[in-house]
Amino acid sequence: MKDSIGLEASSGARAGQDAASPDAAPANRLMRAAVLHDVARMDVRQVARPEPGPRDVLVRVSAVGLCGTDFHIFEGHANYQTDRRGRPIPLRDAPQILGHEIAGTVLEVGREVRDLAPGDAVVLDQGLNCSSAARDPKCEYCVTGDSHQCKAALPTISPCRR
User: Fold this and answer.
1) Active site includes 72?
2) Choice among 72, 77, 82, 148 that is catalytic
3) Sequence ranges of the domains in the chain
4) Which position among 69, 77, 144, 148 bears the catalytic label?
5) 74-128 pLDDT tens trace
6) Does position 17 have pLDDT exceeding 60, yes or no?
């Protein structure tokens, strides 16, 4: 079966080594995602939908911008998933859901989130870094001015203004 984005659809698979099995998740806790499971091999699968933590927001993705890094990972020229010793983890062992430049709608918010609500339109920017999060000491990238590669970076979400 072909999905609307032209990728072969399948079900019952999981992305990431820490993701719960979709078979164990209730139907309302599943989501569809384009999963990169090997070099240049991606399909749309049902995966466990994450539970937002206290300061997290769950977003239904409407659009994704693919950057050069996504293409490098897809083509097998880059792999940023590493084990504790810094060795790359093969996609076959730890599939990835690519895309960090997104727009969408807030589905759920964590209990400490005060500035967003379900239904809000948002864009996601992975621009949080050691400086913006007041972390000390700063990572090697933030110290050298390359904060866009911050090892401690977490995505930030901004409401869309219409």
Assistant:
1) yes
2) 72
3) 51-159
4) 69
5) 999 998 888 889 899 999 999 999 887 899 999 999 998 888 999 999 988 666 7
6) no
Instruction: Name 157's Cβ contacts closer than 8 Å, sequence gap at least 6.
Output: 57, 59, 106, 116, 122, 123, 124, 125
Answer yes or no: 69 catalytic.
Answer: yes
Mean pLDDT of the chain: 79
**Residue 2 and residue 34: Cα distance in Å, rounded?**
12
State whether the Cα torsion 130-126-79-46 is positive or negative: positive
Say how far apart CA 50 and CA 41 lie, in whole Å: 23
Which class is domain 51-159? alpha beta
Q: List the structure tokens of 150.
A: 């911050």
End-to-end distance of the chain based on CA atoms, in angstroms? 37
The tens digit of pLDDT for each residue in 130-140 reads: 866 768 888 88
Structure tokens of 95? 């599939």
Assess whether pLDDT exceeds 90 at residue 147: no
Give buried/exposed letters for 66-96 (b at 16+ CB in 10 A, else e). eeeebeebbeeeebebeeeeeeeeebeebbb
Question: How confident is the model at residue 146, as a pLDDT?
Answer: 86
CA-CA distances (angstroms) from residue 98 to 44, 70, 73, 129?
A: 12, 6, 9, 20
Separation between Cα atoms, residue 21 and residue 23, nearest integer Å: 5
